[in-house]
Automatic annotation (TrEMBL):
NCBIfam families: trpB. It comes from Maridesulfovibrio hydrothermalis AM13 = DSM 14728. Pathway: Amino-acid biosynthesis; L-tryptophan biosynthesis; L-tryptophan from chorismate: step 5/5. Belongs to the TrpB family. GO terms for molecular function: tryptophan synthase activity. CDD domains: Trp-synth_B (cd06446). It catalyses: (1S,2R)-1-C-(indol-3-yl)glycerol 3-phosphate + L-serine = D-glyceraldehyde 3-phosphate + L-tryptophan + H2O. Its EC number is 4.2.1.20. This is Tryptophan synthase beta chain.
Amino acid sequence: MADNTIVDANGFFGEYGGQYVPEPLIPILNELADTYNKFREDPDFRREFEYYLAKYSGRPTPLYLCSNLTKELGGAKIYLKREDLNHLGAHKVNNTIGQILLAKRMGKKKIIAETGAGQHGVATAATAALMGMKCTIYMGEVDVERQKLNVFRMRMMGAEVISAQSGQRTLKEAVDEALSAWVGQAEDTYYLLGSAVGPHPYPVMVRDFQSVIGKEAKQQCLEDEGRLPDVCIACVGGGSNAIGLFADFIDEEGVKLIGVEPSGRSLEPGQHAATLCLGKPGIMHGFNSYMLQDEAGEPAPVYSISAGLDYPSVGPEHSHLKDLGRAEYEHASDSEAIEAFFKLSQSEGIIPALESSHALAHAMKLAPQLGKDKIIVVNLSGRGDKDVGQIEEMISKGELSLP
Ligand SMILES: *Cc1c(COP(=O)(O)O)cnc(C)c1O
C-alpha cells in the first residue's frame, strides 16, 4: 500500500480533506483512522487483502497494448490497464475488499454504503455476501428507479436497498442519510465509502486500496518496455481509480499524470461535472476540496452521460495535486466519450465503460501529438456492458448512429 506521504495527522492534503462532520462522528472516524493505521502494514492483513484480490477478483489485471488503435492514431503507444477484467467489471472491488477486511478486524457485523449509479452498491453487496456480513445500501429514490438492474443485483446478493426520499433524491441525499444512520449504530456497523472522498481517513484508505492499480501498471510497463510510461491518464468522478493509478507514480517526476473530468453537454452550469476544471474550494460531505457550487455555495446540480462521474466534489488529494501542479486535469464531453466508446469497441474489440471512455477520449487527442517512442497508460476503469442498453436506446431514438 502506498506510503502515507502527503497527508498530515488530521487528514489534510495541503488545505484539502479534513473531517467536517457533526460532533458525534468524530470519535467514530478517529477509531477508524487508528484501526487503519494499525492494520495497513500488518502482514496478515496484507496477505488476506492480496489473497482476495488474486483469487476473488482475478488480479493482476493485464497491461494491454492497443496495437490497432495506436497504429490508427499514428503517435504514442496506448496501453490499457485492464481494470475492466476485475470481478464485477470495474476497479471498485479493490476498495470494497480492503474495507470489508478492515471491518471484520474491527468486529463489525453490518455494512452500510451509499451508491449513485449502483456500481459501488453492487461491489459492496458482493463482498458483504462473501464475508457473511449484513448489508444495507442507501440509494436516492430517483437512482433506484434509473438503475433497476443494479438494485436487483444487490438484492440477489442479499443486501437491503433503502431509497433516500429527501431533496433531489440522488447520490447526495443517499450519502446524507447513510451518514446519519451510521451515527446511531456505529457500534456494530461499518460505513463503506466508495471513492477517495469523504472525511479522513477515507481518502487515504481508498487510495491505498486502489494503489494496486498503479503498482502493477508500473511493474508491467517496466517488464514490457523497460521503462516507465510518459503519461498516465484516468477519468475522475470521485477520483478513486485515478488516484489508484497515480499514487505510485507521484514521485516519478518524468511521468505526467492527467485526470479527465466529464464536460457533459457543455461548460454551462448544470451541464457538466468538471469539478477540478471549473469549481472552487468548498466543503461538502465532510471534507474540503474543489467543488461545483451554486450562488449560495451549495453543491451545484451536475450532469454527465456517465452516471459514475456526476459528483459535484472530488477527492481532496486531487485538489492538492492540482494546486501543486503535479497532476493536470482536463475534460472530455459526452460526445467525445461516445466517440472513444465506439473507437475502442471497433479497433480492439473491447467495450469500455462510459466513465473510462472519458480517459480514452483524452488519450486519443494526445497520442497523435506525441512521438511514436512515447508511452501512454490509460486506466480502463470498467467494462461497458452496463452502458450498452443506454447507448442502444440513444441509437433507437435517433439521437446517435452507429459509426
Ligand atoms: C464508479 C466508477 C468510476 C468513477 O469513480 P472514481 O472514484 O472516480 O474512480 C469510474 N469508472 C468506473 C467504471 C466506475 O464504475
